[in-house]
Design goal:
Radius of gyration: 25 Å
Strand content: 15-25%
Structural class: alpha/beta
Shape: globular
Number of helices: 10
CATH architecture of the largest domain: 3-Layer(aba) Sandwich
Number of domains: 2
Order of helices and strands: HEHEHEHEEHEHEHEEEHEHH
Distance between the termini: 78 Å
CATH topology of the largest domain: D-Maltodextrin-Binding Protein, domain 2
Length: 296
């Protein structure tokens, strides 16, 4: 190879290496410049939060919303410990949680982002179509007087007649809300329920268990389970969970969903929350099976 040709080849190789290094540096800078927002909490809301995150990545490619569930209690603890930028919660913060947050210098800010109708699920073979709040309380509370399906006037094919109670673990906001709304604040849950980690787990177990009953977010309904209508009192009209029955309050076990930030949200977090409240963000609430905020 001639000296001139060798110099030409070496120059081309060096230029190529410099170009690749430059491109890599730009990519690295782009990655480094991306804003990451940690969004932790409610298992009821995790599918919705993930759908929001995926859609927002198209709107703001420079922002990555990292979503994880675990329950409202997990999200609130992360908020207090400053490991979450946003905590998802299917219940409001309790007074002691607010005080803990204030002790580390942050007064949590609350953002209502939609509603969930807590649905009552049974196996699809169950002939029962509706149930009252009182009957639910008697099934779930300690000392309750309903333990067999025959006491509700039904017989379930393939089941031994015993009511199998499916519930959530106590770090769940849905657990706390159900206790307050159905079981009663002063009452404990009856021992012996099957306590599941997540909303999806509740529905999956019921779909495989003919004698089971359980509660979960309305967005987790599948064709493998039946959703019961619920009445405020036995003999009153019973309503199915829906957008209309949630907003007009005829469905008796619906509650708001919240996002909390540790103090005033940072600019990128505030921009994301504004988008969640926009028509685009609220449309995702509806398409994932929940209830959007009413338009002002």
């Amino acid at each position: 190879m001639s000296r001139n040709l060798l110099l030409t080849v070496l120059t081309a190789v060096a230029a190529s290496a410099l170009f690749q290094t430059g491109c890599g540096g730009k990519k690295a800078d782009a990655v480094a410049a991306k804003t990451v927002i940690q969004n932790i909490g409610s298992d009821t809301m995790v599918n919705l939060a993930q759908a929001w995150a995926e859609e927002y990545a198209k709107v703001e490619p420079a922002v990555s919303i990292e979503v994880s569930g675990g329950g409202s209690g997990i999200g609130i603890a992360a908020l207090i410990n400053k490991t979450a930028d946003i905590a998802n919660a299917s219940r409001q913060l309790e007074a002691e949680e607010i005080e803990k947050a204030k002790k580390v210098g942050e007064d949590p800010k609350e953002f209502m982002v939609g509603y969930d109708a807590v649905s009552i699920f049974v196996h699809k073979s169950n002939p029962l179509n509706e149930i009252s709040m009182e009957e639910l309380g008697e099934i779930y509370k300690e000392g309750g007087n309903l333990s067999r399906w025959s006491e509700l006037g039904v017989t379930i094919p393939g089941a031994d007649g015993k009511i199998i109670r499916v519930s959530r673990q106590n770090n769940s906001g849905t657990y706390h809300y159900f206790r307050e709304a159905v079981v009663g604040k002063k009452n404990d849950f009856r021992a012996g329920s099957l306590d599941m980690n997540g909303s999806k787990d509740v529905v999956e177990l019921i779909s495989k268990t003919p004698g089971a009953i359980g509660y979960s977010g309305m967005g987790y309904a599948t064709p493998e389970v039946k959703v019961l209508k619920v009445s405020k009192k036995k003999g009153d009209p019973a309503f199915a969970p829906s957008i209309a029955t949630t907003l007009n309050k005829s469905y008796p076990i619906a509650r708001p969903m919240y996002m909390y930030t540790p103090g005033e949200p940072a600019p990128q977090v505030k921009k994301y929350l504004d988008w969640v409240h926009s028509d685009a963000g609220q449309k995702i609430v509806e398409t994932t099976g929940y209830v959007p905020l009413p338009k002002q």
